[in-house]
Amino acid sequence: MDFSFKNRHGLKIVGIYDEANTAAKKGLVFLQHGFSGHMNQPHILVMCDCFLKAGYDVVRFDCTHAFGDSEGDLSQANLTNHADDLEDVIEWARGQDWFREPFILAGHSLGGGSNLRYASRHPTHVAAMAPLSAVISYELMIEAYKRNKADELEALYRDGFVWKESATRAGYRGKKTVQYVENLKQHDYLSAAAKFTMPVLIVVGEHDDITLPEHQQKLYDALQGPKMYRMIEGSEHTFRTETELTRLSAVMDEWLNSLRNNK
Q: Which one of 64, 70, 134, 235 is separated from 12 by 20 to 30 angstroms, measured CA to CA?
């Protein structure tokens, strides 16, 4: 089912509700892409398929200020706006007859960071969480930038922006602005990890140069509930190749099986 509505800022959000083809529903999942992404990226679709096969209904959506079909401009993209969109989608879904709570949150990169913010504010609403390659905090992001993307960080503060092109939607181009980095000063989910007592899956690419494996390990170590950490061998920040996507699917299936077996 396609849907659309206006978020708290008056911008249109579009999304899809996919219903699992099983009589025994396991629950509901909200699935969110990362910075400049969209709901039909290959790794998002792989995650969606895993949840559907396991009996979960899935809500996925295009965030505002990204390269999907929702409104906004990439220059305004930041973790706060991304996380606000997740909250607004969840509140919209509460009015639907298929809404179920507690639910699972899943996301990649900025979407993973949005998962962390929502769970830190509403931990009892979240049955489990899969924040993949998650943006965790300003301090960890700056450390990664200085180590691996020093030229981009310098350009952001010198020029105010760098150009970003979509890897999956030809012709989509926009500005990543310095406010994206500055906004992260409002977010620190490593210090909030004590609230995450629900089952959590942490996944990161072996060669991720922005949400570093060692930073994901820090979050994993601070988690207080059932947890799983897996690395996608050979992958960078976004899981793209057939091998990486196959590995991601296997990891998701492994985690979902563990949720079923531990109930």
A: 134
Can you tell me the distance from the alpha carbon of 100 to that of 193, in angstroms, rounded to the nearest whole number?
25
What is the β-pairing status of strands 27-32 and 103-108?
parallel
pLDDT digits (tens, 9 = 90+) for 15-52: 999 999 887 889 999 999 999 999 999 999 999 999 99
124 part of a folded domain: yes
pTM over 0.90: yes
Strands of the sheet with 200-205, listed across from one edge: 2-6, 12-18, 56-62, 27-32, 103-108, 126-132, 200-205, 227-232
Q: How confident is the model at residue 263 (pLDDT cuts 50, 70, 90)?
A: low
**Structural tokens at position 201:** 């899956």
CATH number at residue 34: 3.40.50.1820
Supply 130's token pair.
């899969």
Domain of residue 251, residue span = 2-136+188-261
What end-to-end distance do the CA atoms of the chain give, in Å? 30
Asked if the structure places residue 162 within a domain, the reply is: no
- Could you tell me if residue 170 is inside a domain? no
Which three-class secondary structure state does DSSP give residue 88? helix
Which amino acid does the sequence have at 38?
H
Tell me which amino acid residue 255 is: W
Q: How far is CA 57 from the centre of its chain?
A: 17
